[in-house]
Structures are given as structure tokens and as C-alpha cells.
From TrEMBL:
Pfam families: Tn7_TnsA-like_N. Residues 64-140 form the TnsA endonuclease N-terminal domain. One of its GO terms (molecular function) is endonuclease activity. The keyword Zinc does not apply. It comes from Hydrogenophaga luteola. It comes from the Bacteria. The lineage of its organism: Bacteria, Pseudomonadati, Pseudomonadota, Betaproteobacteria, Burkholderiales. InterPro entries: TnsA_N, tRNA_endonuc-like_dom_sf. This is TnsA endonuclease N-terminal domain-containing protein. Keywords: Endonuclease, Hydrolase, Nuclease.
Length: 240
């Protein structure tokens, strides 16, 4: 089975980036799980997802300015369950701007009503707490909030394929500061003259907009200030 062994930065049609080998790989796919690969600007490689709910999570992590990097199925651990030792592989490992690492389990909320799954996740959470590893379960109730999910997908799709460097994005924004706040349509026009776009700056955390209404040409974009601590949250208690 092919693995991604790229290194460096995402660069147009030659994606190279985070060197990552999944701890658990599907040898013979079965069942109704929709598996695929997402071209991540943030990681500079194709990120595997198992199921559409994981893909929903990936879009949000890709757009979150608090998230520096995320990895799928990063490692496998053993944890105690009564008199037995079991294995567990988190769905995602998220690394924040502050350097904190958070393990994420993506799970439909309906599954959490099952006693066996509740018991497993409680054992995993207790073990990780003792070892100092942050852990959070994200459900469809969080990941599929609308119109946020649709808006974030649109932002990811419209952003430039080649991720802007921080210095370039800051410079472009500085030149357009006098025009802000502005509508999405106006910001697109103004930033284009400087080789940038509002979608990339939203993903970089330099601009912000409301996500509780459908994105449109009239959507108001504002400059992010030092007092702003995030323009959307998945697990605010964990910093992202």
C-alpha cells in the first residue's frame, strides 16, 4: 500500500509536506464507510479520512487559525480496562499554535448512547488524563452545525491553492487596512490587487466573519485584533 512520504511545503501541483505514517491502515476496506483523501494546505499532503464525519472535522481543522497541524491516526496506545489491556488509536492529533497536542475522537452522537462505547471512551479518557494527554470527543452535533460547516467548506474551496506565507498575508492586509471593514465582494476586489484573497486571510486568522448566516458577497469581514481569541470554536475549553 502506498504511503505519503513527502516533506517541505505545499507547492501547487507538487504537494509536499508533513511526513506522516498512519498508526492503523485499512488493508481491505469493507462496510459502508466512505473513505477518501483530503488535499490539506495546512499539512502539505493528502490527509486520509474514514467516514464523512471525519471529513467534516478535517474541513474545520483546516480553516481554524488556532490549529497549526493535524494528523490522522497518529499512534496506537494500550490502556487498562479492568483486568484487561486494550488498544486504542485516536482519529486525529491536533497541534495548536501554543504547541499543545490534543487527541480527537470523531464519533456520531448516537453512538455515545451505547454502553460499550461509553465505557471504552471513559477508560481511554481516564488513562490519558493520568498521562497528561489532552483528549476530546467531537460529535456530529458540533461538526455539522449549519450554516457553519457549509461556510467553512466554501472558504476552503475558494482560498488560493498555494498557502500564503504569514509575512505576505500580513503585508497584503496592511495595505488594505483602510478599506476594512468591508463586504466579502469588496474585500475580494481590494485584496486581489495585492495578490491575496479574503478566504486565505480568514483561514490565517487575520480576517474574521460571522458563520451563523450563509456566506454571501455581502458578508461583512473585519480585521482581527489582539483581543480576538477565535472566530469559531470546536472545543473552546481546549483552545480550538
Amino acid at each position: 500500500m502506498a504511503t505519503n512520504l513527502w516533506s517541505g511545503h505545499w507547492n501547487g501541483r507538487t504537494p509536499v509536506g508533513d511526513n506522516h505514517r498512519r498508526a492503523r491502515q485499512v488493508i481491505s476496506p469493507s462496510g459502508g464507510i466512505m473513505r477518501g483523501k483530503f488535499p490539506s494546505r495546512k499539512n502539505g499532503r493528502l490527509v486520509h479520512h474514514e467516514g464523512l464525519l471525519e471529513l467534516d472535522a478535517i474541513y474545520l481543522l483546516e480553516a481554524s487559525p488556532q490549529v497549526v497541524r493535524y494528523r490522522e491516526q497518529p499512534t496506537t496506545i494500550t490502556y487498562p480496562d479492568g483486568g484487561r489491556v486494550r488498544r486504542y488509536t485516536p482519529d486525529l492529533e491536533v497541534t495548536l499554535q501554543c504547541g499543545t497536542s490534543i487527541w480527537v475522537e470523531v464519533k456520531p452522537a448516537v453512538f455515545l448512547a451505547r454502553e460499550d462505547i461509553q465505557h471504552k471512551l471513559q477508560c481511554v479518557a481516564a488513562h490519558l488524563k493520568r498521562s497528561g494527554q489532552a483528549f476530546v470527543v467531537l460529535t456530529d452535533e458540533v461538526l455539522r452545525q449549519e450554516p457553519r460547516q457549509t461556510n467553512v467548506r466554501a472558504i476552503c474551496h475558494q482560498a488560493m491553492r498555494v498557502r500564503l506565507t504569514s509575512a505576505f498575508a500580513q503585508s497584503a492586509l496592511h495595505r488594505c487596512a483602510m478599506d476594512l471593514p468591508a463586504s466579502l465582494a469588496r474585500a475580494t476586489q481590494v485584496l486581489a490587487a495585492h495578490g491575496a484573497d479574503p478566504y486565505s486571510l480568514l483561514m490565517a486568522g487575520l480576517l474574521r466573519c460571522r458563520l451563523d448566516a450563509p456566506l454571501s458577497p455581502e458578508t461583512l469581514l473585519t480585521h482581527t485584533t489582539e483581543a480576538d481569541d477565535g472566530w469559531f470554536w470546536l472545543a473552546q475549553e481546549h483552545g480550538f
